[in-house]
Amino acid sequence: MPVYEYSAINHKGKNTTGVIDADSPVVARQKLRASNIFPVSVREVLETAALEKVSRRWFPTKLFNRIRPSEVALMTRQLATLVGAGFPLVTAIDAILPQTRSQGLKGHLSKIKDSIVEGNSFAYALGLFPGTFPALFINLVRAGESSGTLEMVLDQMADMMERQQALKNKIQSALAYPVLMSIIGTGVLFLLLTFIVPSITSIFADMDRALPGPTRFLITLSEFFKNWWWAFLLFIVALGVAFYLFKKTPQGRRVVDRFKIRLPFIGPLVRKLAVARFSRTLGTLQENGVPMLQALEIVTNIAGNVIISDAVTEAAVEVGKGRSLATSLGRHPVFPDLFIQMVGVGEQSGELEAMLNKVADVFENETETRITAIASLLEPMMILLMAVVVGFIVLSICLPIFEMNQLVS
């Protein structure tokens, strides 16, 4: 059923906006008038399925209409606040709708509200949109509805999503300057070798003397870029596309994920960040009464790494046979020793949930600190590298000039 966004005047004479589903704009206006709301304008919101169909044909549509995790986190925080303040769930969703900027999320919330009004549970309604609300979100809501602690579950989910988003933002901020410097530096070198150096080194073409080795190397390199720069760029683009397609295959993703966790310096950070995400999610599920086997099944793909997901799947089988979680996970070297030890202590003390959250805090803080340190080291190293490359170019150009001066003198 189509979803329509409306602006209207309520019975108190105040402007109001929202969304409503109806078979046509006429039916939408009739529904609004029946609720003592007098529509000023009614506009159809493009359905999610239609958006996805269009996005397969035109990439910018997918880019600008996708629902970001930060928007879901904000919605969850607002919903937790309203439900905790005593608002009925449907009323809370109605209050959130006008404040939601994403048209896709607004349409989802409207359909979720209608599903709840029809008598379905909140978890069932969220399950209608698995692309927006992951299995973790849905299962936690189901556990909260069963135990009568929905506001607490929503609050915990908002905390977890905001914490993950904050960590992601910090990592991106730390790496933004080195990445920008890399792009600018590469662009400058490309321009130097393609356009500037050939015009300068052309003065050495008429010299009846052998040029120094660095100068010959620079001329050869600049001639290559001058004549074949388009082929070089085409090769880079083709290589990127091939890597993207290879990564999309199951075998390719496995190879890439294994390579990422084995990289020196970077590999341990990737592994700890993935384990922290797994630990945080498992701890949250356990706090809300989700059985261990079901929780392990839910968090299988949370880590974002196929190698770790496979290890969790195998560990879940061992736990099902009666073995402890620490023993089952300890059989896989992908999990750090500290993580295994803290999980074992948590199982023995009966505080596994608290220990899982604590080890997630430890790994997230350590990862953030290490990435910040690496980023701070990258900046001077990149400046030094640029200085060496530019110095080599200048030296290669100046060496023949020095020899000419010696001959003249």
Description:
- This protein is mainly alpha-helical and 409 residues long.
- Among the domains are: 1-45; 173-409, Type II secretion system (T2SS), domain F (Receptor-associated Protein), CATH 1.20.81.
- Helices cover 74% and strands 5% of the residues.
- The protein is built from 17 helices and three strands.
- Strands 2-1-3 form a three-stranded antiparallel beta sheet, sandwiched between helices.
- A hairpin with a 5-residue loop joins strand 1 (3-9) and strand 2.
- Helix 9 runs parallel beside helix 17 (352-408).
- It is flat, with a radius of gyration of 29 Å.
- It starts with a strand and ends with a helix.
- 28% of the residues are buried.
- Mean pLDDT is 81; it is low at 46-64.
How many helical elements? 17
CATH architecture identity of the domain at 173-409: Up-down Bundle
Class computed from helices, strands and strand pairing: mainly alpha
The portion of residues assigned to helices is over 70%
Largest sheet, described in full?
3 strands, antiparallel
Shape: flat
- CATH homologous superfamily classification of the domain at 173-409: Type II secretion system (T2SS), domain F
Q: Describe the strand arrangement of the main beta sheet, using strand numbers.
A: 2-1-3
Summarize this entry quickly.
By secondary structure, this protein is mainly α. It has helices spanning 25-34, 48-55, 59-65, 69-84, 89-96, 103-117, 122-126, 135-147, 150-201, 213-248, 250-262, 266-287, 292-298, 306-320, 325-330, 337-349, 352-408; strands at residues 3-9, 15-21, 38-45.
